[in-house]
Amino acid sequence: MRKDSKLSVSVTGIELRHPVMNASGILGDSVEGVRRLIGSGVSAVVTKTLTLEPREGYLPPILVPLEYGLLNAVGLANPGIDYVETLVREAHSSGLPIVVSIGGRDPDEFHVLAVKAFESGADALELNLSCPHTPGYGVDTASTLSTLKAVADSVKSVTTKPVWAKLGYNRSILDEAGALLEKGIDALVLINTIPGMAIDVYAKKPILTNRYGGLSGPAIHPVAVYTVYTVYREYRAHIVGAGGALDWVSALELILAGARAVQVGTGFYVKGLRIIEEILDGIREYMDKTGAKSLEELIGSAVD
Amino acid sequence: MRKDSKLSVSVTGIELRHPVMNASGILGDSVEGVRRLIGSGVSAVVTKTLTLEPREGYLPPILVPLEYGLLNAVGLANPGIDYVETLVREAHSSGLPIVVSIGGRDPDEFHVLAVKAFESGADALELNLSCPHTPGYGVDTASTLSTLKAVADSVKSVTTKPVWAKLGYNRSILDEAGALLEKGIDALVLINTIPGMAIDVYAKKPILTNRYGGLSGPAIHPVAVYTVYTVYREYRAHIVGAGGALDWVSALELILAGARAVQVGTGFYVKGLRIIEEILDGIREYMDKTGAKSLEELIGSAVD
Amino acid sequence: MLRFRVLGRLHVEPEPPQFVMLWVPGLEAIPMSIAGYDPSDEVLEFLVKPVGSTTSKLAEARAPEYMGVYGPLGKPWYPSGRRILFLAGGSGVAPILHFARKRCNGRLCHVVFGAWRFDEVGEIPSLLSSLGVSVTTACLDEGCDIKGTLVDAYKTLSVEEYDEIVVSGPIEVLRKIAVERKQGIRHYYILEAIVKCGIGLCSSCRLPGTSLLLCVDGPLFPHHLVEEVLLEA
Amino acid sequence: MLRFRVLGRLHVEPEPPQFVMLWVPGLEAIPMSIAGYDPSDEVLEFLVKPVGSTTSKLAEARAPEYMGVYGPLGKPWYPSGRRILFLAGGSGVAPILHFARKRCNGRLCHVVFGAWRFDEVGEIPSLLSSLGVSVTTACLDEGCDIKGTLVDAYKTLSVEEYDEIVVSGPIEVLRKIAVERKQGIRHYYILEAIVKCGIGLCSSCRLPGTSLLLCVDGPLFPHHLVEEVLLEA
Ligand SMILES: Cc1cc2nc3c(=O)[nH]c(=O)nc-3n(C[C@H](O)[C@H](O)[C@H](O)COP(=O)(O)OP(=O)(O)OC[C@H]3O[C@@H](n4cnc5c(N)ncnc54)[C@H](O)[C@@H]3O)c2cc1C
Ligand SMILES: Cc1cc2nc3c(=O)[nH]c(=O)nc-3n(C[C@H](O)[C@H](O)[C@H](O)COP(=O)(O)OP(=O)(O)OC[C@H]3O[C@@H](n4cnc5c(N)ncnc54)[C@H](O)[C@@H]3O)c2cc1C
Ligand SMILES: Cc1cc2nc3c(=O)[nH]c(=O)nc-3n(C[C@H](O)[C@H](O)[C@H](O)COP(=O)(O)O)c2cc1C
Ligand SMILES: Cc1cc2nc3c(=O)[nH]c(=O)nc-3n(C[C@H](O)[C@H](O)[C@H](O)COP(=O)(O)O)c2cc1C
Ligand code: FES
Ligand code: FES
User: Fold this and answer.
1) Which numbered atom of ligand 4 lies nearest the CA of B128?
2) DSSP one-letter string for D177-228
3) pTM for the full model?
4) Chain D residues inside the 8 Å CB shell of B209
5) What is the mean pLDDT of chain B?
6) CATH: 2.40.50.140, 2.30.30.100, 1.50.10.10, 2.40.30.10. Which one for D2-73?
């Protein structure tokens, strides 16, 4: 306990026991999944991105395992926003905060989703503005700065609770982040997957049913570190890092670049549920070795 | 010889013995480097990006080797455009076509560089519009569609020889490619590196002197395939693929996605000079096995 | 029985009852049990029952036709007992063929293979016999060793001769056997579910009412873990 | 002599005359020969001569101070002969220390170590002796075994006793020895150049007039490959 208090951190007012949680889309879509997450030791539960109606997602292949990451086009398969209450109850029953990821096709849909999520007791929202492979959602919703701002407005108007916004890597990332922060978004989640494709040379066809998907894992880790660093350096905002956190070093890189917390996605696939404790053990040992007294002093410490 | 003729391909009117050449920045900056390239069996030599004046580039560390690629911030170190004649002579003495990569800070610089390159006998130009880590060059020059077009105009006005333009991955890639093609650019080279950063957790500093650099190699391969596919599908243009071509399968994926030729960068570091023959052997065997009669019939064959 | 040569490389040798995602380019990728694997020339064997568009396309495949495959997926689990009774219905016999090849040496293996009609039984029994495994067939018409369903066969069996029973086949068969289950012997079931990602990430294959994911925790489960799944409904 | 514990992991054990890029955060990364390596606790040793800002910062480093390191780089080449004579000037002795530890067992190794002044000689000779290597020192003032430069020492030596000569140190020393080179024995030189990428990609370390890249083809070269580099200018 004493040891863990060094790891505690507050993100947009939410007190976390430590900085490591799951990334949206990994296990946070059912009661059983949430239980597995809780068992893994995450400090908060992030739900799968929920949409107004349940979605089946794409037909398989929806996933291509690569040596250095994953390519996925799940197609936002999810049980729909009305399931959110069940998920919230499960997380809260273990005393964990829950961040509800929502995906709408326009500002109005985001509005409705936000209302439902907060009514059900969500501790924070994560706006999925960056899923790269589901037409109408994600990057499509957020294709211009003005729609980004409209989404932020429509969601911030319903609540005083924290709203996080999740973006992907793009050359205009600083403008996008700036526009959202200006509209009162409380934290940025950086980054979502990067579009990618794998072709089967014998079949002469893209492997994913959706043709392309989102690249995650070690392959995008340097891009995630770059993005977190660049945005933190410019705005000193609250940032939650995601992208290739597969061990304590890669997780810590995101923190030193400016992330207050780190989300793990592909890492669960590569290492299983024990990844959370493995990352935390590594960070604890590192802090002991280097004499760091609190996580807070590490956040953004590589940024000059 | 008979076997090789199956591999021959013409890119923007340049006849290539086979589709594999080096990527800009790899060995094409000195007579000795060009000799090594020729020895490796490339079908064309691509020069390091040349600027008006010689550039020293950044101080080391300029490179971080990762398990699944490289992060580099060389800073466009190059001997300057006046050296181009020497490089052209060396390539031509072995009968190989040479593609001169040029990097200017504005349309006027590109104009001057293009004139010098063609006067020295360049067979084609490659406009570097996408180096992500050298302020003033690359993505900075090409930050809006109108500057992209202005660069294309200023270069196309000096020549009837083929001009290729090299872009990086960006969400607006289709617009950028479209603008360049509209201005008469003959081929697109896709993709340059993606910005990335590595932080040393003990030093608490970005490792590269330039802080961030460009990510290359297997990590970006799926993004390259995606980009080539997407642009080819929209415009059916001549495309030269680059990004993580490390063996025949990854090279072929780029071809099936629409690339008429493939450039190898990081592959030289991972496999050495023998990589070119290794890729070609693999593609030959594949063509025999699958009964493909010419490279031409493979180009873009995964695109519907 | 379909045979495919693996053109890439399987990173590990598949064990029963593992499966792969078999991708028919242009159509879907579907889960398919590995019925056999020859490491010398990397040939994978499958037993396909045409039920819908993808399996029908598969059943018609003739060389040279390219399919995508990824795996092996699922837990490489196999019973540890020395005397094993298999109850297999239809294409549910696929993983048992693989088991017979790899694991019946030095064991007593017996398979009861069930089909609707005698003419559906085909080459399976002789294949199993050639592997040194004894077989009893069951079908509803004449010609099989037993006239009746797999469940009928199960009821008449004296199970004391075995350490373990593995049941594989249509879900209705599994359910009925779970109901009729005889005491004093461990029962295992090879289940099916809608597999999408195959690696525990999409929850598509979750067994209802449990936290079990078929693609990583299965497809073989001991009775106590899936009792509710089988006895409910 | 600086000792660093490697916090990450070297993927391969370094061999002489390999080097690393030693990165002093905030300053540059510079090439530094590996003077010693203890695999049991992954400690790397360097011998640093302060000549500019980065080397000076290095020479002042006290624990706990973190440096970045990547490598080992360069070819793990070592002479194959049984009797080897080393001529080492200044910090050029670093790779020879590593050689002595790893490769002088079962060989006849002799080192002529040169410095400007006797007080610069320091602990090196005793370190080498403790490794079973015989040492002759040379300096311009009193106190060394030989009064004179390394080149003076070289001229008086009878080289027939050796199979190979390895010369390491300031470029002027290498040049002079190349000029005075005695026939009938193979000469090798450990060269320096501006190393930037360290992996053969940036051509910064190309030896002038050749296609050799020091970082991948060297840093040790046989006489015939670098004759022109050393004899020109
Ligand atoms: C672990 C496992 C091993 C299997 N092994 C074999 C085998 O060796 N031989 C064999 O013939 N069949 C096997 N199956 C069943 C096979 O996967 C389905 O028959 C096939 O997916 C049906 O696809 P379809 O397009 O032909 O039919 P569809 O028209 O798509 O559907 C027909 C039926 O198959 C079910 N189904 C559809 N998609 C899937 C899916 N992704 N996963 C599971 N069921 C699905 C549907 O619910 C429906 O009942 C296995 C299934 C699993 C889960
Ligand atoms: C393979 C190799 C092994 C070496 N091993 C050792 C060693 O064991 N001990 C030791 O003390 N020195 C060694 N050096 C030399 C050492 O790298 C330089 O002294 C150091 O780079 C100077 O850096 P500085 O910032 O202190 O000096 P600066 O002020 O930058 O320069 C001082 C001198 O060093 C040269 N130099 C600068 N940067 C580099 C560079 N990146 N690569 C090579 N030379 C450079 C300059 O040309 C100048 O002559 C080695 C060099 C090489 C190439
Ligand atoms: C299978 C899978 C499903 C995902 N689903 C979602 C999702 O529903 N919403 C979302 O915002 N991000 C989703 N992501 C992206 C992750 O949340 C994360 O941003 C990305 O994978 C990078 O992190 P990683 O490298 O740790 O996986 C998904 C990623 C994967 C691999
Ligand atoms: C060390 C290095 C130097 C590079 N220099 C250049 C350059 O000068 N101009 C350019 O357009 N691209 C440059 N690139 C990018 C490559 O040409 C290529 O687009 C990229 O590395 C992706 O290909 P790869 O994965 O095969 O390396 C460089 C890449 C590396 C690794
Ligand atoms: S199929 Fe996706 S979790 Fe099992
Ligand atoms: S230092 Fe870059 S090629 Fe040798």
Assistant:
1) 11
2) HHHSPPTTSEEEEE-----SSSSSSS-TTBPTTSS-BHHHH-SEEEHHHHHH
3) 0.90
4) 28-29
5) 94
6) 2.40.30.10
